[in-house]
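Write out the 3D structure for:
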Amino acid sequence: MLIWLIALPALLFAKYCLSKKIFVKMSLVARNLWGKTVVRSTGSKVSFSGYENIPEGERICFVGNHQSNFDIPSFLGYSGQPVGFIAKKELFKIPILSQWMRIINCVFIDRSDPRSAIESFKKAAEVIKDGYPLIIFPEGTRSKSDEVGPFQAGALKLPIMAKAVIVPFAIKDSYKAFEINNRINAAQIKIKLLPPIFPDDPIYHGKGELAEHIREMIVAAKEGM
């Protein structure tokens, strides 16, 4: 915790006083180090594949299934991408953590207030347009199991608003690191990036069809992981 507290001012300075290129490099190192530290503290390992499915020079929104509290650290630690994520508003109240989250371009959302949620989506779309990928979980909550719950079509308004390429991803066995028995366990976590969906693809603007299409991609991918 002390290390992250010391590093916080350095990243704040980099974000607001140095070039975007330098800030991205510094924040990427911080993301990777934090994510790997959290995952390795449980004795878990992460297998991350599908890097070839990340399109270069595009706005990106990563869309995946949500099993565990360890999904975000696993993705940040091993994706090699300067990603942020949509977070529930309650995390905004946690000192230091909320500061870190703002620095890496996370956006807080109040899901109980539709009007506020739309404003958060608009802010998140601007983050993506500015070149910072975001992660969303259309299930809306952790499954705490190997099941993939229904996808909420409304969650996909974000990449559409940002005109971003959707990169689906499948997570397997992250719930075994904690949620399986509410104790810390060593798990073999697998994350696989799937073929991207571009704004000019016919399915992209299919609303409910798009959500179900991505869910089916993830379910099929998990079976082979």
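The CA atoms of residues 88 and 212 lie 24 Å apart.
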